[in-house]
Write a structure and sequence with these properties.
Layout lengths: L6 H36 L9 H15 L3 E6 L6 H9 L11 E2 L3 E5 L4 E6 L6 E3 L1 H8 E2 L1 H10 L7 E8 L2 H4 L2 E5 L7 H11 L4 E7 L6 H11 L6 E6 L3 H4 L7 H19 L4 E2 L2 E2 L5 E3 L2 H10 L10 H46 L3 H10 L1 H38 L1 H8 L9 H4 L2 H64 L16 H7 L10 H8 L3 H34 L8 H70 L4 H31 L1
Parallel strand pairs: 1-8, 1-9, 3-7, 9-10, 10-13
Antiparallel strand pairs: 2-6, 3-8, 4-5, 4-7, 11-12
Helix pairs in contact: 1-2, 1-12, 1-22, 2-12, 3-11, 8-17, 12-22, 13-21, 14-17, 14-21, 15-21, 17-18, 17-20, 18-19, 18-21, 20-21
Amino acid sequence: MSAKIAPTNFINDLDRVSQSRLQVSQSLYAIAQTLEKAELEGEKQSGKLELSRDIEDIAKASIALRNGVFRLLVLGDMKRGKSTFLNALIGENLLPSDVNPCTAILTILRYGLEKKVTVHFNNGTSPENLDFKTFKQRYTIDGSEAKELEQQKKLAFPEVSHAVVEYPLSLLEKGVEIIDSPGLNDTEARNELSLGYVNNCHAILFVMRASQPCTLGERRYLENYIKSRGLTVFFLINAWDQVKESLIDPDDKEELAESEEKLRRVFKANLAEYCQIDGYDVYDERVFEVSSIQALRRRLKNPDASLEGTGFTEFMSAISTFLTKERAVSELRQARTLARLAYQHVNEAIERRVPLLEQDIEELKRRIDSVEPEFDKLTDISNQFQTEIRTVKQQKAREVADAFRTYVLNLGDTFESDFLRYQPELKFMDFLDRGKREAFEMALKQAFEKYLHDKLAAFSVIGEQQMNAAFGQLSQSAAHYGASYSKVTDKITEKLTGQKVQIGSAATEDNSPSWAKWAMGLISLASGNVAGVALAGVGMDWKNIMLNLVAVIGIGGAIATFSGIILGPISLALLALGIGAMQADSARQQLVKATKKELIKYLPQVAQEQWQPVYDAVQECFEAYETEVNARINDDIKARKSELENLSVQKASHEIDRVAELARLRMLENNISDEVKSVESAYQHLLSA
């Protein structure tokens, strides 16, 4: 277990990360400004070095770091104490945490100079600013209303996208943003809403309750939306203090220990598989027994109060270590790589430019003409990689779509065992009553839809695994093509200058072109290369595309096909059973049998109808990747050509002061080197803290 930490220590650690982010952001901004100024000056001297792509990437990374936050998504069923937990974490009774009302819309809590709530709509309506009291009155609902909406498969406020709560709190000011989701068990539509945020968060805080250990709804959500997705999840078992209160004799230490140990075994049996990282068991660093109400009471009296015995001390230690050591280090590693790449490009361009300053215009043109075959080779490499991407795109799109079709067609094979936990209770004599039969049919419809949601959502994990393999293949190809590309560019430099350019190896991990680093980094945004920043810049997130277009389209289309078709025949089949179906077990078997019979009839239709949307979703993933990779390679080739043309034009137009230009270029190189060292210093400081 990590060293214990108090709320103030947590804030101090976040502040240290915030300062490191700011330092690196400022250094990146200085690099971008220095390069931009140098390019303007170059237009009057020996010509631009064509560093616009570096300037763009560095500037975006600087902004991202300056505005960077650690985004925490809070999940959990209704009445698990999510709001009480958040209030305890924040140290202020900010969010509504009464026993009955529950949050009805997704709420984003972020820092603001003034207390403010802004409600955003999805129907084109302008955002609405509210005070806290009005927001609470208007957008919380009681448990009975939530249950009714669940039965009707409706959202409480379908026109609302989300709410943003701004508040001047230290935790938020230091770069933490919290997303409070509605309860998991009120509607599948809300599950899908929360799902859209899962992959865009640094960590998930999954709140459970000691008195209701691992309910079916919680297990369903974990299995379908969290399992096998490589997400970081912290489990908060809330109201642990109530275990003692539930005993006949709360002072019986032996009985308390036995009850707590029994609960721990239940939670570990259900949560252990979500606490594995690269084969290592991190259960003790991910699961925490907490008493939110006790922690909140203490912090309301004294923000710096000891939280020993509430579970918050251990939890805050673990989340602090994760955010400030793992995630922050990953962010700054990416920034360091960008800075190193910028220095590498400047260094290479200057080492090409300096020898050419001494050449007359005719010799310069001759040398430029001599490297045309090499530029053709660069274009060939680009075309080869693009062809491979397209081949993989076509192959993988068909593979995933075919796998989806096979998956759907095989649902009937395991339906009888799979549907057991979903089916509603069937009382045959009640079923003969029309009113009660309609209620049963509604329950059956909801059960079947939950089953279908779960089965089809589970397919997105299969799709992710296949996509991971495909992008892993492309990552290796990018490394291969990048190495070939670098050999050609080295040859260009050698032919232009008459000597090999030696790039300082201390500046970069390797000399791969930046486009190759971007392409190789698609698999992991925390892999330490430029891809994380580049992908954020173009808004590319193939996992979200898969989740939205495979899971959601597949589910919606399948349910539309099934729900209105199979219930009638099932009801008729049950009515035809006769008096022999009065036995509960017989009725259950007949229900499953009748449902399976109707399901199998329509599986081929669903499989066929949804094949194309799945195929298109996979295509979209690769097309976004192909577009960005192609643009970056073309930009690099164009920049290299333009760099030479710029010098040629300047030489033809006027006499270049070679001494002054050499001094300017070396000053540029030194200035960039100084800022790269500043980035390195901030990164190393964070590592050693």
